[in-house]
Design goal:
alpha/beta; Rossmann fold; 7 helices
Length: 266
């Protein structure tokens, strides 16, 4: 039995065997959304092989249960490439998600904006990404499945559903391109100018590896950024992780509204 199958069996022994429909990965300052799920919380420490989510502002629990009538698996925290240099650090959790029956995943993150019309407190639905880091979680994968097409990495139907949910609830939600920067240091103003020239609208330190892995595993994907700051050189904000955590709840309320409506609609 594979490691992911073993963990899925362990999780089902605690949370029930009904298949999960959708996974949610929560970013910095967004871990409180896991508390909205009516279900069972399992600490990552109880799941052998799960990464240690060592960034403050994350909630390192896997929560299985119902949210707006949909059975979900919520990852209250994620591990990042910058924590130990492994871009594939979230591979096992995503393999477990698939083993639990899910066919799709929505990732969320905290990001810096490069658009004046998308200030702190905004949310952005990703319609594409730029792998500015140049890293890839599939390096070392031996099978030909590593050659993953990424044309519709952010599933058009899921994006349409999220946009419709935002419109129905009267929630402002932009669309745009997200650039993955490896971190943990924040970007320089020169790097931000470069990323803007490449066509990015927001920048952050996560999500892209998970989207690549999810597509590799055959999961449909969508992602939403909460804007916690303007990118370096675009405002007088003092950018820091503490600032990120402080600003995340502003966009988190909008994000939760959109996600709840989306789940009701599906």
């Amino acid at each position: 039995m594979s490691k992911s199958a073993e963990l899925a069996t362990l999780i089902q022994s605690r949370a029930g065997t009904a298949p999960v429909r959708l996974g949610l990965i929560l970013g910095s300052g967004l871990g409180h959304l896991a508390h909205a799920v009516d279900g069972v919380a399992i600490p990552y420490d109880d799941l052998p092989g799960f990464p240690h989510a060592g960034v403050s502002g994350h909630n390192p629990n896997l929560v299985i249960g119902n949210l707006e009538g949909v059975r979900v698996a919520v990852f209250g925290g994620r591990a990042h490439y910058y924590e130990d240099g492994n871009p594939a650090v979230m591979r096992l959790p995503l393999e477990v998600l698939k083993a639990l029956g899910a066919g799709a995943v929505i990732a969320t993150n905290a990001a810096g904006s490069m658009r004046p019309d998308m200030p702190t407190g905004s949310i952005m639905c990703l319609n594409d990404h730029i792998n500015f880091s140049g890293l890839n979680p599939l390096i070392g994968e031996a099978s030909d499945a590593r050659f993953v097409p990424m044309k519709d990495a952010y599933d058009p139907a899921m994006r349409a559903g999220l946009i419709a949910a935002a419109q129905t609830t009267g929630t402002d939600m932009a669309e745009g391109v997200y650039a993955w920067y490896s971190g943990p240091s924040f970007e320089t103003p020169a790097e931000i100018r470069a990323i803007r020239l490449l066509g990015a609208d927001a920048v952050g330190m996560s999500t892209v590896p998970e989207v690549i892995l999810a597509r590799f595993l055959g999961l449909r994907t969508a992602a939403i950024s909460t804007i916690t700051n303007m990118a370096a050189g675009l405002s007088d904000e003092n950018i820091s992780h503490e600032h990120t955590k402080a600003m995340a709840p502003i966009g988190a309320a909008k994000l939760e509204t959109v996600l709840r409506r989306y789940l009701r609609d599906i």
